[in-house]
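The records we work with from here on pair a chain with its fold. Here is one such record, which you should read through line by line:
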Amino acid sequence: MPNTKALRVRIKSVKSTEQLTKAMGLVASSKIRRANEAMYRARDYLKSLEKSISLLTSQPEAQKSPYMQNHDTSRTKIIVIAGDRGLAGGYNANVFRLCKEYPNAEFIPIGKRACERYLCPINSSERYTFDDAMALSTKLCEEFKNGEYDKLGIIYTEYRSVMTQEAKLKWILPLERGVAEGVSGIIYEPDHLTVLNMSVREYVAGNITSYARESFACEVSARRMAMDSAGKNAKQMINDLSLEYNRARQGAITQEITEIVAGAGEN
């Protein structure tokens, strides 16, 4: 017969877990709206940057830019954006699984979990600012121009909906030749090449900032769904344990009554 005391302790433990997951789900829900707003603003900013860079790289003289030179791709750097915390379903695991496809790359982590994995100084993906991104971009652009590496990418999580997110890789450098669609007569001072070279730092920083915002929106959405699922599982477990506890308790009462009746009959 199951131990009723052990069942009571287990029910209490599961109820405590349910309260914790509910609280974490509420915290994640409160962050979703703000995170989504920041993500959409960053997306719009990045689209404007991409349009400008595409226009600049469509010019013939842009091929002289050091940021458009293709070299040996064996020296690759990849920025990895992961979360600051766990309990977000497969969010972090999906990012690191994609990283394993590039074993020879040098990883630059953003987010506490990524920093811990790659043994780097801790920084927060939630609080990652444009100034942080610009500092990193300046360093990476200078190293690329000096030929210290040949290819720069960024691994992030693409937001599709509250329920769906996907880890992806986007290559940033070298720049690809763009297409000037429906734009003509623009005059750049002093020239296209100079403006392009000056714009690359902001373009790289815009990518880092935008995908940091998008990844954080995915993290809080994934955490909310994970906590909702954990809460439902906890409720089901409490129901099952309560049923088992009631049966055990009823069995114990029945056994006590039987023993009392049997003892009275002997007397």
